[in-house]
Amino acid sequence: xxxxxxxxxxxxxxxxxxxxxxxxxxxxxxxxxxxxxxxxxxxxxxxxxxxxxxxxxxxxxxxxxxxxxxxxxxxxxxxxxxxxxxxxxxxxxxxxxxxxxxxxxxxxxxxxxxxxxxxxxxxxxxxxxxxxxxxxxxxxxxxxxxxxxxxxxxxxxxxxxxxxxxxxxxxxxxxxxxxxxxxxxxxxxxxxxxxxxxxxxxxxxx
Length: 206
Hints:
This protein has helices spanning 10-19, 39-44, 48-51, 62-76, 121-143, 163-169, 173-176, 192-204; strands at residues 23-27, 33-36, 84-89, 95-107, 110-119, 149-151, 158-161. By secondary structure, the chain is an alpha+beta fold. Strands 2-1-5-4-3 form a five-stranded antiparallel sheet. A hairpin with a 5-residue loop joins strand 1 (23-27) and strand 2 (33-36). The longest helix is centred in the middle third of the chain and has 23 residues, at 121-143.
């Protein structure tokens, strides 16, 4: 016997919103919050009831308000929705980074702005740490007195070399980028040495 198809009634939709990870906010055209999903309490510490009726801009970082207000107006006027980053104040006074997107929905003859937001504070922290690490690595690479180069493990083509490499070997950057060390004769008569090194790196990476 075939199972009856699942009916997506209002109670189910409300359950999805109540238990979803994303924070769902409904605002009227003036920016007043008319509905806030319970996820905001888990993510930011605010109760949904305490946010109802307040201007959503009151919760945003002052430096973000003008930009977000422009985006809010763009959504109301039919501009395509896109994800934006903003900072929102938590109940404890700390600032959380959110990634949000908005769209207009029509309910009982009124336009409302539906905003879906996700807390990306930890993601931003990781991205910041990675960026700092890359900057430090780039400085170390370029300023090192030792000869340093970066090449593709698959093609062997050089993607970067430092100044010590260029000055010692007498090449210009535009002459070496995109060529292999073998083509440049950097390995001399022992060109197979690079393949042995690559093979060892593959073994260590397993």
